[in-house]
Amino acid sequence: MIDVQLVKDYLSYHLDEKAVGLVPREVRLGSTAGKATTIIGPRRAGKTSLMKEEMARLGSESSVYLDFEDIAIKGASAAECLRIVAELFTEVSGRRAESVFLDEIQNLGDWQSFVRTLLDRGYKVYVTGSSSRLLSREIATQLRGRSRQFLLLPFSFSEYLLATGNSGIHIGTLSGVGKLKNLLSSYLESGGYPEVVLGRDSRDRLLGEYRELIFLKDFVEREKAKSIDVARFVFNFVVQGFAGEITVRRIMNAMKSSGVPFGRNTVYDYVERLQDTMVFFFLGRYSPKVSMRAGWPKKVYLADNGLAWRLSSDKGRLMENVVFLQLKRSQVSNPLDDLYYYRDGRGEVDFVLKRGAVVIELLQVTYSEREVADREIKPLLEAGRKLRCRDLKVITWGYETVKSFGTQKVAFVPLWRWLLVRKDAPMR
Fold first, then answer.
1. Which of the following CATH numbers is that of domain 4-151: 3.10.450.30, 3.20.20.70, 3.40.50.300, 3.90.1720.10?
2. Fewest CB atoms within 10 A around its CB: which of 113, 131, 172, 337?
3. For the residues 315-344, what does the mean pLDDT come to?
């Protein structure tokens, strides 16, 4: 049973709370009548801050914020929470609540019924949950089509520039471009986790803690892993193999070589469940056949480059991971888009963007400054012909031009420009 006075104090505190120091995010939430707005993403990506940004936009004086990890609310029943929203908030504020923000909702029993009840009574509802307990597929199942989902990843490069006070760099000067490339180098290496970017603690300590926390809480604990040794080997192997092609067979061969005992079904199960942590994304190989696209091998990408901190200095791989994340952000706002990679016996294309039944863009990523090797260009041109795609791009570190190859044209675009233009970031 709730302590009513404790809850009133909690509500009063959050009514007076000011949203200060928040870095505006590119994700724009909004609301749809009769549907909960759910924010899905990896741990420490900034879901709570995004929620408070939305509260400030709507007006905190008419918004109820319930943090289900706060001692005043933790342990409350769904019925008691409804009383907090409908009665106690009005008693404290003198106003009827219009919007309800539910943070870490997985700690509330029967949260699904509570959310549906709020929606039925006309409230705007916003929901976040720990990535280890509240996944997008659980939301879809439990709310039965009554939710709008938003993916929140750590800072994009344009958000990184804003957070570090560098969003107004003049790109029309050589020094401005040099500054952007310097900042991009740092972003590639340590990623965009908000706490890391804002320098609130040691980068080494934070990123090491994040990796271990994700492994223990979001993988071992959630999946009830019985073999910690197998789970850790699979986790570390996939992290270290980011931006590369993996197969379960390759993982098992590596385990044999290392002398780690394992069961075949256990390894398959652990690999499949890695995506539930929301920090691993598996990308299928493009094929006209759906069954082939769904099978192995796959390429693996991380939700943030910081998870590979001190594991890889390969700038090409780091660039490719960042490009994938930017494409993933764009894909969320374009639900008809599908993303794949392409490989045949003659080479590989890093990314195939398909909209409906049509391949609309092919992307190759390379660190090359001036001359791009034949192994990058030839597969791109061949895939362009085979997939009937005319939009061919090579994302480079600094080389910029357009080249013709017979009837085909390839645009070479520096990574910094592609990242900023892709999201219409402010540039001068």
1. 3.40.50.300
2. 172
3. 89
CA–CA dist 366, 346 (Å, integer): 18
Task: Report DSSP letters for 35-93, one per residue.
Answer: BEEEEE--TTSSHHHHHHHHHHHH-GGGEEEEETTSTTTTT--HHHHHHIIIIIHHHHH
Residues 6+ apart with CB under 8 A from 298: 245, 246, 247, 282, 283, 284, 285
The mean pLDDT value for 375-383 works out to 89
| Cα–Cα distance measured from residue 341 to residue 300, given in angstroms and rounded to the nearest whole number | 11
* Closest C-alpha to 351, from 374, 378, 328: 328
- Measure the CA–CA gap between 266 and 229, rounded to whole angstroms: 12
Nearest to 338 by CA among 392, 300, 284: 284
8 Å CB contact between 136 and 128: no
337-344/347-355 β-pairing: antiparallel
Give helix then strand counts, H and E, for the chain: 18, 14
Arithmetic mean of pLDDT, 80-88: 96
Give the residue among 369, 371, 391 at the shortest CA–CA distance from 380: 391
Tens-digit pLDDT profile for residues 197-206 = 998 778 989 9
Block residue for tokens 């949260």: 111
Identify which has the larger pLDDT, 226 or 122.
122
Cis peptide before 297 (omega within 30 of 0): yes
Query: 415: which 2 tokens?
Result: 């990574």
- Residue 383 clears pLDDT 50, i.e. is over it: yes
| pLDDT score at 427 | 35
pLDDT at 369: 67
Q: Is 380 helix (H, G, I), strand (E, B) or coil?
A: helix
Q: Which residue has the tokens 């090491």?
A: 208
pLDDT tens string 134-162: 666 677 677 777 888 888 999 999 999 99
Q: Where in the chain is the domain with CATH 3.40.50.300?
A: 4-151
d(CA 128, CA 101): 8
